[in-house]
Amino acid sequence: MSPFSLTNILLVASGGAVGCLLRYYFQEVNFFHADEYYFTVGINITGCCMMGILWALFDHFGVATGWRLFLLTGVLGGYTTYSAFTLDALLLLHDRLTLRFLFYVAMTFAGGLLGCAAGLYGTEKLLKIFG
């Protein structure tokens, strides 16, 4: 089966919809009882925890690719992409690729901050010029 089969696409898309709705639900009911920054931390930590739990269970029990696509890529990808980042980082450590792990974490963190800053401040500047 092609990785871009209709079945795989529907599994990821439907899982992503569920994950996005979960994130929205927790935001609206103020599940984490905090401001927006701590809400994001709560989402990221719970998503990472679930990613670790599910990966371990799936690996142990040999769960089929469809469930991995729906729950890991879809649901948790829609809920938080940070969970995928942490899993990738820990798998590098697990495989004893310490330098690659350090580079991946540093580049993701710095790149994320720089990318967000460029988008935020660049857009604000453009809006002042053209807006």
What is the gist of this entry?
The protein is mainly α and 131 residues long.
Report on this structure.
The protein is mostly helical and 131 residues long. α1 runs parallel beside α3 (65-79), α2 (36-61) runs antiparallel to α3 and α2 packs across α4. It has a domain at 6-79. The chain has five helices and no strands. The chain has helices spanning 6-28, 36-61, 65-79, 82-94, 98-130. The mean pLDDT is 89.
Instruction: Return residue spans where pLDDT drops below 50 for at least 5 consecutive residues.
Output: none
Number of helices: 5
Average pLDDT, all residues = 89
**What fraction of residues sit in β-strands?**
under 5%
User: Quick one: biggest sheet?
Assistant: none
Order of H and E elements: HHHHH
Shape by Cα distribution: globular
Radius of gyration: 17 Å
Percent of residues in helices: over 70%
Distance between the termini: 49 Å
Strand count: 0
- Indicate the structural class: mainly alpha
Keywords:
single chain, 131 residues, mainly alpha, 5 helices, 0% strand
Summarize the helices and strands and which ones pair or pack.
Blueprint: H1 6-28, H2 36-61, H3 65-79, H4 82-94, H5 98-130
Helix pairs in contact: 1-3, 2-3, 2-4, 4-5
